[in-house]
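Query structure, 193 tokens:
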């Protein structure tokens, strides 16, 4: 290539750039919030142009638009060290000052003392009644075991200690559906031979 050809290409590109700066911007809709441009309104006239159409002002090139910060979601906020709104509400509830009740009068304090004393006596009576009933049942059980014949199978079974902590074996297990009449689960158990 000759140097004259290169210089003529440079001149053409400079002339095209100058012409683009002087040309008014084509009609298009601009969104100021996002800084994006939609397609020009004219039909397919821009498809066959030799120079690209740039959106510019008559004064010169546009200045750089500041970036718009997007609102962060809770997960992004948490990842950056921020706290969740629900956590803030809970912490404020826990850190709230404790309100003390107003002081009671002497008559009210005497009434509360009598109520507490009656409650304490009532709970001790309930405790004693429960344990008296258990003690009577244990004495009757031991007396019944002593009445069984010595060295018999009945006495051995009565003295056997069952270490199973769950419900008794005879108690049915609650299920979602009622039992199927005539169903025998042993028919479906396959034993390894």
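Result returned for the query:
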């Amino acid at each position: 290539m000759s140097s004259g050809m290169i210089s003529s290409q440079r001149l053409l590109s400079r002339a095209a750039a100058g012409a683009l700066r002087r040309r008014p911007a084509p009609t298009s809709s601009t969104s100021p919030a996002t800084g994006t441009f939609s397609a020009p309104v004219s039909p397919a006239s821009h498809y066959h142009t030799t120079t690209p159409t740039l959106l510019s002002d008559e004064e010169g090139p546009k200045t750089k638009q500041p970036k718009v910060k997007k609102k962060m979601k809770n997960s992004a906020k948490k990842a950056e060290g921020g706290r969740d709104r629900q956590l803030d509400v809970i912490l404020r509830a826990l850190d709230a000052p404790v309100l003390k009740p107003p002081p009671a009068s002497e008559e009210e304090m005497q009434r509360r003392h009598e109520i507490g004393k009656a409650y304490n006596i009532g709970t001790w009576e309930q405790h004693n009644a429960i344990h008296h009933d258990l003690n009577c049942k244990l004495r009757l059980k031991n007396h019944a075991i002593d009445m069984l014949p010595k060295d018999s199978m009945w006495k051995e079974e009565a003295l056997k200690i069952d270490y199973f902590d769950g419900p008794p074996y005879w108690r049915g297990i609650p299920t979602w559906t009622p039992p199927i009449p005539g169903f025998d689960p042993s028919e479906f158990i396959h034993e390894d031979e």
